[in-house]
Amino acid sequence: PHQQPQPPRPDPGEFAGQLAQALADYLAHTLGLTPAEYTAKQIHARHWAPAWWTRRDPTDAERAAARTLAARLRRARTHSPEPDTRPSPIPPGRLRTRHAITAKAQIAAGSMPTATPWQRRAQVPPPKPHLHLAVLVDTSASMRSYAAPMSSAGWILAHAAATNQATTTMIGFGSRATLLVPPRQRPAHVLDMRAAGGTTAFIDAVKLADQLLQLRQPGRLRMLAVVSDGDLPDAAPVQRLITTLHQGGCAVLWLRPADLAGHTFTDTTTLMVADPVQAVDAIADAAVTALEHA
Fold first, then answer.
1. Pairing with 196, which of 10, 27, 77, 123 sits 20 to 30 Å away (CA)?
2. What pTM did the predictor assign?
3. 262: which residues sit within 8 A by CB, 6+ positions away?
4. What is the per-residue pLDDT for 150?
């Protein structure tokens, strides 16, 4: 009778399920908000960038890099065109009688013909799924040299994705998970993250990425890229989360600095990188390759 019951705690190695969503919907209703508005307020309160992370205008080199990556993504979507047929208002091609009659009736009525009487063969790009890419960046003190290049990469990825049926987000994780680049936005400025302290918030970061981009949802092209030495506390629940994503069809790319000791997780494609530029290039290459083979 003198003992207090222990409140239940969520399993750190499990993603939020339907009960958590139902509770969030209920709280949103009690506050007079839509579920989307409630979620946005919660994310802003918990994961917004600290005041000492500064914003700056993008450089000419960053703008050029965004254009280059956007062009690569467009080419990846048109990779290996396939034979198909397309309607056409004029020959050559095969005449479609019903559409020809409709076109004549439209002309006779004095209206602009919208029917397409002809059908021609053409080489068209195959349909490609929408790419969902989340990038998690270790902001602990040991990763200080990666902070500025990865901040730049977040801006570049967001702008390249905006016009290419892709959605990206970048999240920093150190002592807390920080949303650097929200999804479906083209930030006007580059937010420069600061690397300091330890790294205890990977679990919060990967769960936030899943919440933002639905990385466990099938039927879409999903990728998680992590830039970190892998020296994380609570390796067991971290591994369970990674395995859950891997088994659900989300590719996990882990980029480890070659000059730092660390840990390699299973169910990942792990690359040792010599410098931050190589890490950024590897993420861009992986996105392009994923689209080409989708």
1. 10
2. 0.82
3. 228, 229, 230, 231, 256
4. 97
